[in-house]
């Protein structure tokens, strides 16, 4: 029953608005699988704080919840699910 | 506190401002501070006794002050009118058009938005309101203001600095293995950081440089900045960074931050610094900071690598620290313990730090008692797996994760791993 | 239509130059995101879920062929080949890059267009009746007033940082197609007892979280006093509107909490101060008004007296259906108003491809006195079309899938972009609209149902106008899952009404069956084909429709 409460830090790229994640290499990445996954709470707060220091590359850093499925992060909320697809659900042709 | 006028920044002798209650006294030449919710009636009887009204803007997004300025002018106020607080240069024209004479800004804002930003916004353009209004009926006063504004035209220069980035020069590069190197760069005079923090660095090799978080591997007192890095063949930054040479330029963002700092830990007696790979970088900063030894009686640095060659950077820094004329005395072998373990090569100690922590091998090897949450503190830096597993062990010892806002008994840097 | 003079074009170019500098200052760090955001918003630039979005103003919904063609060019060159027409008569591009937006704005300036104040806490693009200048029921053309307000409010130094956004709509017809009662200020053009032109001024309407019906603050305002009076309203709002809570910051809340009479007294006092202290400078120059009005003179209509047009004999069944639904009465005999449906079955409401835009531009130039309008119902209007050109227009529209005969029918759905694009959205809107349109695709069925306005919003901000729909759908977030609440009985016209919520929400899959149950109930309950859904709802009340929506719940009994 206990749902793991894991989180990822995400934002939008300043120049093109694309979805980016804070990656394991200490910078923003466009690959969800390369995102740092941390526990909700202190760890997530600290990661968000660190990622938010420099906002000259991105807009709107925030955390969102994920589940780990087969070792890969999968967003829980519909909004982040749609965001990580990078195109509207009604325009799959744009992908 | 610069005063921005149409001709540029000015300073003025300190004036003492008073609140509207000063109106009750029968003084003249008043300089008043008013909030944007002030009713004009409160002031209108005393207009002739007021030299300067300073309207406070809490936030540039709160436009009440513009309406108050307009109301004051409509009610017949002819003295000086100043906007103060948070206004941005893009609003300068608005303030002037609403009847203000000048704007008072903070020094910090003046640095970020220097004079020419304001001047660029100052030239009056004919406005739609003027175009639409019945010119023959316009008051001479309004006409005068428009003329005065137009005469203040100044050429506009296009400004494109990288305001949040320092350009620094590489002073030294050392390669340890095919995959590891360190380098030193000059330090901007205004750059401040706490030992253990990281900063975003990049190279000026693209219109849009790639920036990555790097721990500041040197101590906060050093004249230069030091970094320790892996070389990733297709890493967006490291593929280029590994080829830097002395004299090259490296970009450094102006702000450093991080969780691996003394401020995020509650006080204690022993400090354990657990690192794998390049995760040692923030700790080579911390062990070279005298403050560390003021806060803790003993510091234990553990360094886990795959091969002997990968230990070299850490070994060098520890040796350098012990040989340092000032640090040598406070960071002797009894104060600073350096424990190394390898996972691939042969070595006095082998295996993962998690294993050595669990089976107690670490404590036996350094001759110390196991971690006691009452008096021991820890910092973790390494791969994601290492952070998770070592963090879990710390929690088993009773340690609680802390942050800058909520200091705890152990801290983790999650902004980058590896 | 209005043409830029030297002043307008200099102004717009200067504004683009400034915005280009602001972009570079944001990238350099001289402007923080907090500081840059209101500046970019006031130039129409949003950051959405996947990318930036540029909202381009179509002032009071009026375009010509050249402008439409330029929009197509922008869609191809800097976007992904399409644009989205909105309920505020704007067009949105969904994929511009930050630096490209300055180039796009320059390209817009080339055709006398801009994106100024299409967003932000300022006076937004002024909207007007999309049939303005063409409709048979019009008293006076609202566009000169809208243009006057556009000029006056553009870059207004005092009102660029209001507590919240501020929307003004104007109608010149008693049949309100501009939703004036749902605006911060609604203006209805009226005449006084002596026949002098003026306005009824409505204040404090709005949809969103707290829908409110606009109230009349001034039953008659002389035409020349308009700007001074609007300035007074804005100043009172700017000074006293709430800034502590963004959900209570619109003028409707100020009016509601302060009381209409008190607000009226404040506004009247400010108005008299303005008139007195500025000795008339706030009043518009009559010559300037006359200049603006001259641009909106009707086109040179052909005298078609005796030009008997036999539509019935002119085409096939599909064409006839299109003429039944997509035409409106023109004031000039022999002419008609064509509404081009951007609601093909299964299409995204309001979206038009660059090819479709070019076809509409061609048609306007060839057959429509080079005039195009955007309606708040997300369709495109050719306002001046000779009836005898209809077959040719229909054939050309059909070629690019723009000839759907469904205006005012169940598949003519308003939908905001919802969570497919918008970062404020709590649920998707477009897929729901598509599902409903597909379900009711059969044209005979749709015609049987008759007039029906379904409007879908993807969040409480109500960009999809769900409150004023016959059947309104509001998408919400229930623990990370989309959920849709239905409201019934709303009306955006002069008989303005805000719809009533009909019980708990539905999952995405349950929406179409629920609408189908509602429609079945209506068809059974109506007195005849002439009684529309809305009329039947007004006659019967919510209960029978609620029963249809929730068949397993017993109706509440009167105690």
Q: What is the secondary structure topology, with strand pairs?
A:
The complex is a heterotrimer of chains A (95), B (418) and C (559).
Chain A lengths: L5 E8 L5 E4 L5 E2 L8 E2 L2 H11 L5 E12 L2 E4 L2 H8 L10
Antiparallel strand pairs in A: 1-2, 1-4, 1-5, 2-3, 5-6
Chain B lengths: L2 E3 L2 E3 L19 E5 L5 H5 L5 E8 L6 H11 L5 E6 L6 H6 L4 E3 L2 H6 L2 H7 L6 H5 L7 H12 L13 E13 L2 E7 L11 E5 L8 E5 L8 E7 L7 H4 L7 E5 L16 E7 L4 H6 L3 H6 L2 E8 L6 H12 L3 H4 L5 E7 L10 H6 L2 H6 L9 E6 L2 H13 L13 E3 L6
Parallel strand pairs in B: 3-4, 4-5, 5-6, 13-14, 13-16, 14-15, 16-17
Antiparallel strand pairs in B: 1-2, 1-6, 7-8, 7-12, 8-11, 9-10, 9-12
Chain C lengths: L5 H23 L4 H9 L3 E3 L4 E5 L5 E2 L1 H14 L3 E4 L5 E3 L6 H11 L16 E2 L14 H11 L14 E4 L13 E7 L5 E7 L11 E8 L3 H15 L10 H8 L1 H18 L8 H9 L22 H9 L1 E3 L5 E6 L10 E3 H14 L4 E3 L5 E7 L3 H10 L14 E2 L14 H10 L3 H7 L4 E4 L13 E8 L2 E8 L11 E2 L6 H18 L7 H8 L2 H7 L10
Parallel strand pairs in C: 6-7, 7-8, 16-17, 17-18
Antiparallel strand pairs in C: 1-2, 2-5, 3-14, 4-5, 4-13, 8-9, 9-10, 11-12, 12-15, 14-15, 18-19, 19-20
List the defining traits of the structure above.
heterotrimer, B: 418 residues, alpha/beta, Rossmann fold, Elongation Factor Tu (Ef-tu), domain 3, 3 domains, six-stranded mixed sheet, six-stranded antiparallel sheet, elongated, C: 559 residues, alpha+beta, Sulfite Reductase Hemoprotein, domain 2, Sulfite Reductase Hemoprotein, domain 1, 4 domains, five-stranded antiparallel sheet, 36% helix, globular
């Amino acid at each position: 029953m206990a749902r793991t409460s894991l989180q990822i830090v995400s934002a939008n790229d300043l120049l093109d608005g694309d979805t980016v994640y804070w990656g394991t290499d200490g910078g923003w990445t466009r690959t969800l699988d390369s995102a740092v996954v941390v526990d909700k709470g202190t760890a997530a707060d600290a990661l968000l704080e660190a990622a938010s220091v420099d906002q000259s590359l991105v807009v709107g850093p925030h955390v969102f919840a994920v589940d780990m499925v087969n070792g890969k992060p999968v967003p829980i909320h519909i909004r982040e699910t749609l965001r990580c697809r990078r195109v509207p659900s009604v325009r799959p042709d744009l992908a | 506190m610069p005063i921005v006028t149409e001709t540029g920044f000015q300073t003025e002798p300190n004036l003492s401002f008073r609140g509207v209650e000063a109106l009750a006294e029968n003084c003249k030449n008043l300089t008043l501070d008013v909030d944007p919710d002030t009713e004009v009636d409160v002031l209108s009887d005393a207009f002739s006794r007021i030299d300067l009204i300073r309207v406070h803007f809490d936030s540039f997004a709160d436009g009440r002050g513009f309406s108050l300025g307009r109301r004051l002018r409509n009610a017949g106020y002819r003295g000086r009118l100043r906007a103060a607080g948070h206004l941005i240069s893009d609003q300068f024209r608005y303030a002037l058009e609403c009847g203000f004479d000048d704007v008072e800004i903070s020094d910090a804002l003046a640095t970020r938005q220097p004079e020419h930003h304001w001047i660029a916004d100052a030239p009056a353009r004919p406005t739609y309101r003027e175009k639409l209004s019945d010119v023959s009926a316009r008051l001479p006063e309004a006409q005068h203001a428009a003329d005065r504004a137009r005469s203040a035209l100044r050429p506009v220069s296009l400004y494109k600095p990288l305001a949040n980035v320092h350009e620094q020069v590489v002073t030294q590069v050392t390669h340890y293995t095919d995959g590891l190197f360190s380098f030193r760069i000059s330090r901007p005079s205004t750059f401040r950081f706490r030992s253990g923090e990281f900063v975003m660095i990049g190279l000026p090799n693209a219109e849009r440089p790639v920036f990555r978080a790097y721990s500041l591997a040197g101590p906060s007192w050093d004249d230069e900045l030091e970094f320790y890095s892996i070389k990733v063949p297709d890493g967006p930054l490291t593929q280029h960074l590994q080829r830097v040479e002395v004299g090259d330029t490296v970009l450094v963002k102006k702000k450093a931050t991080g969780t691996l700092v003394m401020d995020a830990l509650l006080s204690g007696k022993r400090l354990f610094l657990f690192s794998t790979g390049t995760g040692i970088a923030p700790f080579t900063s911390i062990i070279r900071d005298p403050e560390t030894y003021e806060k803790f009686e003993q510091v234990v640095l553990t360094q886990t690598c795959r091969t002997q060659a990968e230990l070299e950077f850490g070994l060098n820094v520890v040796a350098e620290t012990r040989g340092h004329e000032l640090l040598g005395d406070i960071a002797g072998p009894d104060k600073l313990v350096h424990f190394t373990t390898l996972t691939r090569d042969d070595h006095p100690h082998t295996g993962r730090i998690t294993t050595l922590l669990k089976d107690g091998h670490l404590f036996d090897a350094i001759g110390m008692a196991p971690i006691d949450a009452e008096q021991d503190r820890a910092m973790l830096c390494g791969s994601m797996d290492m952070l998770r597993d070592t963090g879990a062990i710390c929690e088993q010892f009773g340690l609680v994760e802390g942050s800058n806002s909520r200091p705890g008994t152990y801290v983790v840097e999650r902004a980058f791993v590896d | 239509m209005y043409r830029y003079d030297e002043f307008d074009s200099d102004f717009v170019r200067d504004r683009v130059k400034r915005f280009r500098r602001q972009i570079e200052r944001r990238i350099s760090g001289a402007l923080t995101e907090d500081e840059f955001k209101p500046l970019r918003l006031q130039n129409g630039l949003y950051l959405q879920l996947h990318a930036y979005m540029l909202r381009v103003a179509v002032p009071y919904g009026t375009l010509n062929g050249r402008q439409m063609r330029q929009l197509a060019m922008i869609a191809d060159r800097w976007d992904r080949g399409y644009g989205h027409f909105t309920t505020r008569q704007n067009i949105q591009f969904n994929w511009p890059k930050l630096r490209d937006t300055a180039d796009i704005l320059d390209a817009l300036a080339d055709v006398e267009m801009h994106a100024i104040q299409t967003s932000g806490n300022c006076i937004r693009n002024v909207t007007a009746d999309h049939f303005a200048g063409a409709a048979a029921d019009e008293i006076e053309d609202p566009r000169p007033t809208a243009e006057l307000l556009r000029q006056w409010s553009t870059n207004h130094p005092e009102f660029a940082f209001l507590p919240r956004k501020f929307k003004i709509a104007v109608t010149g017809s008693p049949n309100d197609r501009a939703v004036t009662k749902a605006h911060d200020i609604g203006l209805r053009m009226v005449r006084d007892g002596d026949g002098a032109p003026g306005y009824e001024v409505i204040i404090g309407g709005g949809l969103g979280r707290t829908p409110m019906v606009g109230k009349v603050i001034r039953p008659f305002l002389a035409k020349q006093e308009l700007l001074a009076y609007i300035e007074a309203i804005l100043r009172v709002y700017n000074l006293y509107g709430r800034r502590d809570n963004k959900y209570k910051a619109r003028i409707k809340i100020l009016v509601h909490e302060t009381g209409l009479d008190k607000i009226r007294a404040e506004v009247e006092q400010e108005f008299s101060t303005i008139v007195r202290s500025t000795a008339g400078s706030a009043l518009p120059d009559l010559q300037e008004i006359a200049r603006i009005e001259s641009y909106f003179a009707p086109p040179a209509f052909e005298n078609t007296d005796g030009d008997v047009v036999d539509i019935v004999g002119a085409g096939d069944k599909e064409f006839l259906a299109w003429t039944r639904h997509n035409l409106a009465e023109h004031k000039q005999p022999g002419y008609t108003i064509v509404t081009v449906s951007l609601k093909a079955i299964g299409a995204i409401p309001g979206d038009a491809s660059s090819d479709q835009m070019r076809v509409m531009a061609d048609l306007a130039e060839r057959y429509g006195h080079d005039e195009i309008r955007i309606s708040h119902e997300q369709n495109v209007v050719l306002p001046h079309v000779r009836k005898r050109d209809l077959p040719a227009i229909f054939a050309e529209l059909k070629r690019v899938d723009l000839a759907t005969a469904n205006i005012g029918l169940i598949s003519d759905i308003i939908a905001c972009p919802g969570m497919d694009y918008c970062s404020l959205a709590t649920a998707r809107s477009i897929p729901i609209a598509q599902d409903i349109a597909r379900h009711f695709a059969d044209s005979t069925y749709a015609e049987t149902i008759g007039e029906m306005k379904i409007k879908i919003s993807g969040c409480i901000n109500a960009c999809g106008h769900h409150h004023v729909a016959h059947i309104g759908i509001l998408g919400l977030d229930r623990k990370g899952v989309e959920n849709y609440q239905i409201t019934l009985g709303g009306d955006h016209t002069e008989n303005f009404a805000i719809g009533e919520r009909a019980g708990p929400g539905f999952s995405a899959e349950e929406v179409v069956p629920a609408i189908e149950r509602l429609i079945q109930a209506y068809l059974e309950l109506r007195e005849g084909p002439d009684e529309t859904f809305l009329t039947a709802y007004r006659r019967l009340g919510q209960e029978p429709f609620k029963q249809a929506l929730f068949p397993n719940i017993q109706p509440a009994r009167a105690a």
